[in-house]
Write a structure and sequence with these properties.
It is a single chain. The chain is α+β, with helices and mostly antiparallel strands and 189 residues long. Helices cover 39% and strands 40% of the residues. The chain contains five helices and seven strands; from the N terminus they run βααββββββααα. It has a seven-stranded antiparallel sheet. Helix 2 crosses helix 3, helix 3 (122-147) crosses helix 4 and helix 3 crosses helix 5. It is globular, with a radius of gyration of 16 Å.
Length: 189
């Protein structure tokens, strides 16, 4: 599965970078995440409980950060195993670009799944990934606004004037793809 997109956030680039590198924030934002803990530099142990269609499983795995260029970008490599439900693995690239109103988060995700989850069909998997990504990005933006409320009030009017995208924001799809990829990785491992 391939997914890419971008999302404008009403928070400064360095604040978004800090949040993307905070295991507690990520744990709170990833749907079904029970564990997101640093195990060694740039590597995290992850446990996520997911339900995709009729398949429910607890996935365990790891997320590794690579090609880190603070506060601009990094790449993620993830893999997860969910027992008989299957597995998932993949990569993601995240790029942060400062804007006059905050920061643009751009992403590209490539993932593979196997096992029972892969048997569900691409449309169901894609739909679940998009839903999970939407949930993650909504949670992530809410966490950012809790941490940096001044940014929200200062940039709220400007953000609403610039909003030209209708439907689901791209960043939601990205996060969903990351969550699905992590879930798939957990299923695979």
């Amino acid at each position: 599965m391939e997914m890419q997109g971008s999302r404008t956030l009403p928070v400064a680039q360095n604040h978004v970078w800090d949040a993307l590198n905070n295991p507690d924030i990520l744990k709170a934002c990833i749907p079904g995440c029970n564990q997101f803990e640093l195990t060694q530099p740039n590597e995290y142990a992850v446990v996520v409980a997911l339900k995709i269609g009729p398949v429910s499983a607890k996935f365990t795995g790891k997320v590794s950060l690579m090609d880190i260029v603070p506060p601009n970008s990094y790449a993620l490599q993830f893999e997860a195993q969910g027992g008989v439900a299957g597995f998932g693995k993949g990569t993601s690239k995240v790029l942060l670009t400062p804007t006059p109103k905050g920061c643009e988060l751009s992403y590209a995700v490539s993932s593979q799944v196997g096992g029972k989850i892969a048997q569900l069909g691409q449309r169901l998997i894609d739909g679940a990934a998009k839903s999970l990504a939407e949930d993650f990005f909504q949670r992530f933006e809410n966490e950012l606004l809790k941490l940096y409320p001044a940014s929200a009030t200062t940039d709220a009017a400007a953000m609403s004037e610039e909003k030209t995208h209708t439907g689901t924001p791209e960043w939601v799809w990205l996060l969903g793809a990351v969550v699905v990829a992590v879930g798939i990785w957990f299923i695979k491992h």
